[in-house]
Automatic annotation (TrEMBL):
The chain crosses the membrane at residues 78-103, 123-143, 155-174, 180-203, 210-228, 234-252, 259-280. This is Rhomboid family intramembrane serine protease. Residues 115-250 form the Peptidase S54 rhomboid domain. The keyword Iron-sulfur does not apply. It is found in: Membrane. It comes from the Bacteria. Keywords: Hydrolase, Membrane, Protease, Transmembrane, Transmembrane helix. SUPFAM superfamilies: Rhomboid-like. It is a multi-pass membrane protein. GO terms for biological process: proteolysis. It comes from Georgenia subflava. GO terms for cellular component: membrane. Pfam families: Rhomboid (PF01694). InterPro entries: Peptidase_S54_rhomboid_dom, Rhomboid-like_sf, Rhomboid_protease_S54.
Amino acid sequence: MTAQQPGQTGTPQVPVCPRHPDTVSYVRCQRCGRPACPRCQRPAAVGVQCVDCVREAEARRPVARTVLGGRARGDRPVVTITIIALCVVLYLAQRVPGLMILPNLIFMPALAEAEPHRFITSAFLHGGALHLALNMYALWIVGSILEPALGRWRFLALYLLSAIGGSVGVLLLADPTGPSWGVTVVGASGAVFGLFAAVFFVLRRFGRDTTQIVVLIAINFFLGFVIAGIAWQAHLGGAITGAVLAAAYVYAPRERRTLLGVLATVAVAALLVALVVVRYTTV
């Protein structure tokens, strides 16, 4: 028999993990002091911490930003990769016998009024392997630079609105009484030209030499005029849209960057819609 000490009421309580009450743990978190089982332990500078304390510390940690306000994630440009993957998948789907994707998604001024989704879906289709390869290569080179700098949501808005701007450019410059009203347009060129314009403004913003990007834009514009089958109107519309939006993103004051970025995105989108409405109502 053992003698019970004064004040002792029973068997000492065994410490268990708060997240896993069925697991005994004598290891405690260095921050909150609660028991932490092996599944909830995270290495710390001294000892271990529980997952709850680690999450709380990460939530309070200041978000690292690029000079242009993008979140410094240090990972791959997932938006760029997703767009490229989607374009490749749709290109392969176009080659599946019996799967009639192209006629429902291409842009044509005569059809887009009744089916406005064509303004954006056409940017994810391509007429051939070389067309796809050139656009995706340009998208990868420029997107891997712009996406980390601007952040994901601004880069995505820039790409999508530039793509729509390319279709709007085709619409505005097409003759309702001529064959151009029934011309079909596909490709990401309009969106890519919007990204080219954004690179120009980024370089200008930091006092860098813009000669190479200007020459690149000029050469591609020239090819659009001398090579048959290239919609230079889409290049022009995408470049103008991208330039306006990129200027707002790049030159916005740091303390109002998010607000002005949202306002500029909404304003450019509204302007594109207004141009489309006016164009169709005056036909």
